[in-house]
């Protein structure tokens, strides 16, 4: 899909709009193929700089030049970068999220799929920002490889991708700490999700959690220099991919 289906259910966007309109207890139900149902408060998308994890603050400090914020949600990162004087464009596939960002004062907002060819026509960026496990936006292992090539058309010479992801192999550990998954099956970090807000159920979508070695191999093969900037004790990491 190259452009968002604005007729599709948009539970994320509706939850963000509800929060923006004063329903501060708005909560998304998140269903995945690997864990039990989880609750995601809409408030999380509206966090201030000092409510953000250290890893996200580090990523904002490492931004340079013209920034494209991919999967921007309610625009918390874009708004912080604007305050710092950056020229930033915020993009999300959710029409509701785009509306919220416009209402909150994000100056440049676009509603696009990650692979929309319109993104690569004429405009170039110095930093692509992909936070909140942003690598997951690429969907699958094949999607990650595709995106790394696609991003070359979005970046200026020497441009960078700042992205977060995590290794979820711990979900497959047995009682003795050994990993138990099918080595001949799909990559264990490929997950499917659905979101629900109130009675509004969204479509199923793929999401990838890329372990560091897999991400490094894919990025180097695609022609990027790889630098891991930060990791935490929950196996999440921040990586910088620099176009060689």
TrEMBL record:
Pfam families named in the record: Methyltransf_25
Signal sequence segment: none
Keyword terms: Methyltransferase, Transferase
Membrane-spanning ranges: none
GO biological process terms held by the UniProt record: methylation
Coiled-coil residue spans: none
Alphabetical list of CDD domains matching this protein: AdoMet_MTases (cd02440)
Domain Methyltransferase, chain residue ranges per copy: 67-159
Molecular-function GO terms, alphabetical: methyltransferase activity
Protein name, per record: SAM-dependent methyltransferase
Gene source species: Hymenobacter amundsenii
